[in-house]
From TrEMBL:
Belongs to the glutathione peroxidase family. GO terms for molecular function: peroxidase activity. InterPro entries: Glutathione_peroxidase, GPX_AS, GPX_CS, Thioredoxin-like_sf, Thioredoxin_domain. This is Glutathione peroxidase. GO terms for biological process: cellular response to oxidative stress. It comes from Simiduia agarivorans (strain DSM 21679 / JCM 13881 / BCRC 17597 / SA1).
Length: 160
């Protein structure tokens, strides 16, 4: 695969969606979890989404239970948790694996395009973020500890 638009993912409601729907947008892809020390980042992600969505930003949340079993819920529980606790309005997708044999193809591509520290392709924890430009190509990878507000300069640059 050569860009984001070649992938599909299932929404929390179970509908398969082509990511080609985001053509021409700047997209931030995040593996999320509801019971993680970084879970409060949902608030910062939502703030960025509200601030820049009209300028072409999309944030795609992919719940993942691979790190400390911190996303144990089913789709309806995840949706309710994110909406009630953080007012999340950006798109959330079905729970996925981001590492290993069952990893979602999107995350295999993201990791190959933007390896982590020392060239490692594995995702180390929840809330790893990937910034994708309007051309569907990966611009940058951000660590779980990188707070959403620290991404703002890169987002603004990508939004051009």
């Amino acid at each position: 695969m050569s860009d984001l638009y070649e992938f599909k993912a299932s929404t929390l409601s179970g509908a398969e969606q082509s990511l080609a729907e985001y053509k021409g947008k700047v997209v931030l892809v995040v593996n999320t979890a509801s019971k993680c020390g970084f879970t409060p980042q949902y608030k910062g992600l939502e703030a960025l989404y509200k601030k820049y969505h009209d300028k072409g930003l999309e944030i795609l949340g992919f719940p993942c239970n691979q790190f400390g079993k911190q996303e144990p819920g089913e789709s309806d529980e995840i949706s309710e948790f994110c909406e009630l606790n953080f007012g999340v309005t950006f798109p959330l997708y079905e729970k996925v694996d981001v590492n290993g044999e069952q990893a979602h193809p999107l995350f295999n591509w993201l990791k190959a395009e933007a390896p982590g520290i020392f060239g490692s392709e594995g995702i180390k924890w929840n809330f790893t973020k990937f910034l994708v430009g309007r051309d569907g190509k990966v611009i940058k990878r951000f660590a779980p500890k990188d707070k959403p507000e620290s991404l703002e300069a890169d987002l603004v640059k990508a939004l051009g």
